[in-house]
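User:
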Amino acid sequence: MTGVVEAVAVAVGGAVGATARAAVGRRLEGRRSTVVVNAVGSLLLGLVTGWAAVGAVGATVRTLVGTGFCGAFTTYSSVAVETESSLTDGDWQTAVVFAGGTLAAALVGAAGGAVLAGS
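Assistant: Predicted structure:
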């Protein structure tokens, strides 16, 4: 894949991913939207990575969806900010459940995507 094609794939995927992230944020408030986008994005990344591993999709699709879309759609920085905010407020239980739950949901999503892709 040439550098130009790769850059365009990341840009297009990123634009669509960021738009989708904003749409989810308008439908679900607060931590729920963060968990949902990270779990769904991880599932999609598991799918595209699994499909790439078995030769079902090429490098351009992997870059468009995996790097571009999933990179812009998921929001692990929000997990860090919201976890730190809960800790600052003295609500360590929410911080632990939120951070741990988000990580678990993302790992299950990625693994599930890989299994669904047949890799």
